[in-house]
Amino acid sequence: MNWRRALVIGIPMVWLGVFFLAPFFVLGRISLAEAIIARPPFTPLFERAPDGTLEIIASLENYRFLIEDALYRNAYLSSIRVALVSTIFALLIGYPIAYYIARAPEPKRSILLLMVILPFWTSFLLRVYAWMGFLRSNGVINNALISLGIIDAPLRMMQTDFAVYIGIVYTYLPFMILPLYANLTKLDGALLEAASDLGASPMVTFFTITLPLSLPGIVAGSMLVFIPAIGEYVIPALLGGPDTLMIGRVLWDEFFSSRDWPVASAVAIVMLFLVVAPIMWLQSIQNRREID
Amino acid sequence: MDGRVIAAESKPWQNPSAQPFISLRGVTKRFGNFTAVSEVDLDIYRSELFCLLGESGCGKSTLLRMLAGFELPTTGSIRIDGEDMARVPPDRRPTNMMFQSYALFPHMTVEKNVAYGLLREGLKKSQAYERARDMLRMVKLEKLARRKPDQLSGGQRQRVALARSLVKHPKLLLLDEPLGALDKKLREETQFELIKIQETLGVTFIVVTHDQDEAMTLATRIGVMKDGVIEQIGEPREIYETPRSRFVADFIGTVNLFGGKVDVAAPDMMRLDLHELGPVLVPPQTGLTHGQTIWGAVRPERFSLSRARPENTQNAWEGVVEEMGYIGHMSQYRIRLANGVLIRVSQSNRLRDEDPISWDENVWVSFNPAAFRVLTE
Q1: Chain A partners of B90 at a C-beta cutoff of 8 Å?
Q2: Do B200 and B328 fall into the same domain?
Q3: pLDDT recorded at residue B4
Q4: Res B3 pLDDT > 50
Q5: CB contact residues (below 8 A), chain B span 13-72, against chain A
Q6: Is the Cβ of B182 closer than 8 Å to some Cβ of chain A?
């Protein structure tokens, strides 16, 4: 009886321990080391001193470096900005879609949901490449606009922040729609009728009833978009320009170009805390609302 | 009552020149191939407490929803206080509704729920909350104003819903099974409270219910619905005593129904030939002809039971007490006649020490001819 329970809880615990917690500690340990040209490319944690005692060598030098160097600060800020803007757009686009699906009659609803999930069945890389085909100077959009005579010269869309936003919003939109949909289908239609019966116009009903009641869905969807977007590497690498500075790319460069593992580890740890902070904050809000 | 006329006393529906407050003409509602409400004509007068009574699926809720504006009639017109409602959306109608599920806003406190409608009118916050508090005081909930709906009991929620729907002083209050979710005792208490509130405020109420006791207790008039049609409209007493059809007779209360034909239809006497009872003498009635198929309805309490054959009537039959149930203020009997027909009879227990008729006794069942209701539908 008890061992079964231990098994059910134990397997995910072991999984998280081996594949999340242990690497996290490894990362933390490397971030306290110093880069050297060796294999592995960082100083060991313990070193035998000349007098034979074991010394722990650890320094916060890398973190100080991250704070002092404007490149990293800018990369973090820019990542947060990109993730935030993408989340807002995903919400603005995803909410009406989720609302529409939730209000659709049954057979239609399943088809619409399928269409939201369908893109997951093709490779993510392929879909980003497809956007390149759309946004290129001689891509679908530019060619169409030129042939319609709306513009004379192709618009530069590739390798801009605009392309990065499109890529991120497009890729993560289903993560916004699905939790919102799950929340909005639970919304009792009688509440909307009651609001309108009490004199609320459709718009007022939306802002006083629908929106506040869908807040948990908004929070869930926004986190599912914001968190992966902050560390996004592939999309800015493929669609962004050289001036699109995101922490994912900085991380890649540190690890593979500079082979500075300790700084790269410090970058990763700081990013982790940047992501965890909003989750903790939102969860505390959620808890407070429930206690109320 | 500051001179306000209570519809229950003035009975405006008996006055042909009275202006109806709500007037439905030929109202039909179809959902695809299904006709939920069919050609309903209905007049309801100011400060009435009108009950729409019927089984689930009879179209009573659809009718209510059309009055609220949540559904539009497929054909026909609805006028409230002289104004055609065809193009008036729910949020502009002079009606408020109390929902069967109460539909309280779960993210708002009781007081915010009640003030919601007032704030939509553009009332100042302080004024809106003051009026909300007054209304909560009336339904005796002022102490729970800061609670959320999920912290209330079913009866408390019901009163919040009532307060919320009354706070705007609507011309017309629509109540969808207002007492349906309450247990029996609470329901009975609340019925009288509802009548008191209705009479105090003078608001016109339309109540939808499937509970005939509720309708009989509450209503100034009842509309009995079946398959999207109003079968009969009348005061509770009228509906009970002179039902228009077998459906109404059977739906309201208990009834013994007999089938048969008109045998003699003379101006001074009428004789019916019933399958179950044979020849029966009843008071003469116009509009019936010899050989016409009719049904007879007799309420159980209109039968008399006696051990000896009653002398002053020919309408008496002999039978055996097959079942008997003692309910306190009355007893219910099932009498098996010699020809096998089962008759339901109820007798009030007026005396304490009388020797009651009991199981397996031979008895005579009889009725006063005036208690017999002839139905042609």
Answers
A1: 193, 196-197
A2: no
A3: 47
A4: no
A5: 68-70
A6: no
